[in-house]
Amino acid sequence: MQNLLHNLNPEQLAAVTLPSQHAMILAGAGSGKTRVLTTRIAWLIQTGQVSPAGILAVTFTNKAAKEMTSRLGAMLPINTRGMWIGTFHGLCNRFLRAHYRDAALPQSFQILDSGDQLSMIKRMLKALNVDDEKYPPRNLMYFINNAKEQGLRAQDVEAYDDYNRKFVELYDIYDQQCQREGVVDFAELLLRTYELLSRSQPLREHYQARFRHILVDEFQDTNDLQYKWLKLLAGQSNAVFAVGDDDQSIYAFRGANVGNMAAFEREFRVQNLIKLEQNYRSHGHILDAANTLIAHNTRRLGKNLRTDAGHGEPVRIFESSSDLQEAQWLIEEVKSLLNEGWMRSEIAVLYRSNAQSRVIEHALFTAGIPYRVYGGQRFFERAEIKHAIAYLQLMDNPHNDSAFLRVVNFPARGIGARSIEQLQDAARQHGMSLYAAVPHVSGKAGSSLGGFVRLVERMRFENQTMPLQEVVKAMLDASGLIAHYQTEKEGADRIENLEQLVSAAMLFVSEEGFGIDAPAFAGPKAQAVAGPALVDGEEVEVIDADAPLPTVMSPLSAFLSHASLEAGDNQAQAGQDALQLMTVHSAKGLEFDAVFITGLEEGLFPHENSTQEEGGLEEERRLMYVAITRARKRLYMSFSQTRMLHGQSRYNMRSRFFDELPDASLKWLSPRVQQHSWFAQRKTAWDDVPEAGVNAIAQSFTRKDAGWRIGESVAHAKFGEGVIVSIEGSGTNCRAHINFGKHGMKLLDLNIAKLERV
Ligand code: ATP
Ligand code: MG
């Protein structure tokens, strides 16, 4: 038996081996929270306190769930495949698959990702003749998701005026429409599970008896409904083991509630509170930077982090004149890291928003450096892949109207808008899905729609008889998608992506153990090991707690769920040694030898929206803390004076976060003389620039009028503090571009504007 415990420090050991009671592990980044959680699962199983089936572990991303499962597999000689380790969404999906009947869902219900959800809402508003300027589809979507995340159905939402009442009414219609089509959005997965568990005592008791140990990573980012769900599952007697870091709460904008940590301590009467203070991830300078920065937040639970790793290298900071130059610099640094033998997959490039990745991607592509983007446009969100997925969805559940509309005339098969309208009328009239309504359409429209239905039926038949990857391959041909893209000028890339979908299916089958003759899949009838049982006169599906978990989905359903749920893992590129690109949000929980944090400018990071919102700036600071603490050995930060973003040129001030970092841990990299760096005036710590260089930069500032200089800080009564970026004209006709941070760039007449030096 492997000794699981010998690599732990005393606090970690105490946490791993706590008795079976509620516990909270509160600790900063890199202190081993995730490691403790995983080791505890292994320890509980190894010491016979619980069987693998009695564990429910919640992680924040699918990637994290995979990692945890494979670590467990390495620690223990057990089959981890059936274990309930996953994200809230993934676990709820699994629960609803097992209890679809009780949840009033069709067996092959499908998951709407946010893009699908929005297009469905648009379609619905159009069909109802609702003015989408007055009721913007996106707002309705936020409204619905928000309500669901608070556990509210349309009838539970209190509307305080007519406008609001309309939203509520539309929410209701939306839910009915989803029900008719057999689709659920992300928030619905959770709400539906929660409702079913609260409604059905037998089911609730069954799962409470089963999951003796519930373990939650990244607890600080749970939302209200997730917290309620945990409370329900935990019941009176199970042990909830929560690990979290209030300083890393970064999803408030999506309803996460860091207050859940305090609520948990109080409501679960947590006796075991353990803090971990030793950081095992980052070298000293990196950790000092993180600690000093986060100390600027006021609302903190308070904890410290120290390391034995020594100071290591200082944090390197680079200023560029443009985003293009920033990308060029990044490429050079990456190249020299690679020359020194660093692994590509151990180098991460982080940014605040997805839009920033384009320039970096382009530079990497040109330099021939393989990279992988997490988030951004995900593989499964590309148009051609969505089309292919829509065919697969129809094969699995032909009543999915979104899928139907997406491909009924793609590739074109002569089914025009008029025919679709007729079909939509018929569907409304008979209260059925579009697919089911086809026989009610007559004439030419009816016969061309009939042709489409026959095509789908043929594919559905093949789905019964072939392995998943063959099903995907056959669909690509039969649907005409490949043939269609062959005629398109830029279709080659798309065909390549479609072929990658076949590889993704293959990989999925081998990883999940699906396959027509693999024992894991024994058809829908095998879904409940113990079969339906009668408890208190109510029929429920019961899964035997100690039996290995049955696979409840067909390979196709499972693959489709995976496509909707996977959080940015690009299957097709998995395994390749590539540079890692992602937003700071998606870097949560991960670690890399070297990290670049790019675009550290006011308005971008901290994001401009945050400065106006209550608590917004503190959330940005936590985000920056997350970014810094991803790095093990080397950390770079960069910012740029100008940047093209969303088609607009922006002039930026460097992020205020630089002023919150300890000087002793920073190393300012050499600026280029032609940069006109106004910044040279403000910051004195130029490690790499000889004194003469700094003077040359200072002298290159053009003196123009009345002593105003480029780079000078000024204050304006209305716009606040700013920096002069350029000066044009002279004498009485002298104007300046001044960057006022959150008020943006202004062109002011220097003779009229009342400016003060600061
Ligand atoms: P985050 O807050 O970023 O999620 P975390 O607290 O979950 O961080 P882990 O990812 O579990 O931290 O651990 C950080 C790193 O430190 C990992 O590489 C882990 O293997 C290592 N580590 C944790 N504890 C120890 C230990 N006792 N000895 C050696 N290495 C350790
Ligand atoms: Mg972690």
UniProtKB/TrEMBL annotation:
UvrD-like helicase ATP-binding domain mapped to chain residues: 6-283
Swiss-Prot/TrEMBL keywords: ATP-binding, DNA-binding, Helicase, Hydrolase, Isomerase, Nucleotide-binding
E.C. numbers: 5.6.2.4
Residues that hold ATP according to the record: 27-34
An example Gene Ontology molecular-function term: DNA binding
Domain UvrD-like helicase C-terminal: 284-589
UniProt catalytic activity: Couples ATP hydrolysis with the unwinding of duplex DNA by translocating in the 3'-5' direction; ATP + H2O = ADP + phosphate + H(+)
CDD domains hit by this protein: DEXQc_UvrD
A Gene Ontology term for the protein's cellular component: cytosol
GO biological process, one term: recombinational repair
Pfam families associated with the record: PcrA_UvrD_tudor, UvrD-helicase, UvrD_C
InterPro entries from the UniProt entry: DExx_box_DNA_helicase_dom_sf, DNA_helicase_UvrD-like_C, DNA_helicase_UvrD/REP, P-loop_NTPase, UvrD-like_ATP-bd
Keyword DNA-binding: yes
Family: Belongs to the helicase family. UvrD subfamily.
Listed name of the protein: DNA 3'-5' helicase
Species annotation: Noviherbaspirillum galbum
